[in-house]
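I'm stuck. Protein, please.
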Amino acid sequence: MPSPVVAVTIGDPAGIGPEIVVRALAQDAVRRSVQALVVGDRWVLERAMEVTGTTLEFSPAGPVRLLDLANVDHRLQWGKIQATAGAAAGQFIEHAVQETLAGRADALATAPINKEALWRAGYRYLGHTEMLGALTGSPDPLTMFAVRNLRIFFLTRHMSLREAVAEVKRDRLGAILPRIVGELQKLGFDRPHIAVAALNPHAGEGGALGKEDLEEIAPAVQDARGQGWQVDGPVPADAVFAQALDGRYDAVLALYHDQGHIAVKMFGLEGGVNVTLGLPIIRTSVDHGTAFDIAGKGIAQHASMVEAIRVAAQMVTVRRGKPALPA
């Protein structure tokens, strides 16, 4: 069976995306495991190779091909928010999605973009995920972060903590849990074991420290169990992520942005992967931003980009009927 073809976008051309892409694809292990289709701008990539001391050859025969959009103004400055960079980054994403939807790529792995640059260019998406949802006709994608043996889903993400707490409701949990079960089954987990993180300290201490765990989360978990699913919760958040890392759970449902992101970045800032599920395509991404403060210095770490490409390829393999996605 041929190696998966992974489309790789270079992200905001003023950030570290081009640097981590060329470094990742310069790895022999990466080139042996995938056929990469880089979607970007040749001039930007050559500039990234120069500052990183990396040599990468693009060839129509692979293993690394280039879809050169040639859309970046050569006056581009490293490390600054620029509308021209946002426009180019948006076009990289659009073309990569087209390639994947058309079957010319099996999966998509993305380098980071800058939301403000995207907005200055006229895009109105909240971020990468929302843009991908719109481009693929998927109104409500799921986000899963993966690092080592830890997989984290989110009930809410880009909203204030006060707003997120108000969203912790039995019906909302009841709607997302079957979707998580279904997506994990697509990843090869026949009967996934899921933990729902508690909202309050000690899962609310029977209501003494907040009633959401008792009145909203626990009933939703019981509803899920009634459907025959393996769901535990509310599990105190100060313990659940370590338990999942040790293998007790296949995944954790975090209730708000920082509850899940802190755990991911504590356990593996450099090796974490953002996986978008609920799309008609496979999409992975790094778990960090554009790092404008170090862009152009040739020091950006590329481990998360390597993992994003690796996990995308593994997900293709799983969907071709191979064994479950390994940690």
User: Anything to note?
Assistant: The CA atoms of residues 222 and 231 lie 8 Å apart. The chain is about 40% helix and 15% strand. The radius of gyration is 20 Å. The chain has a mean pLDDT of 93.
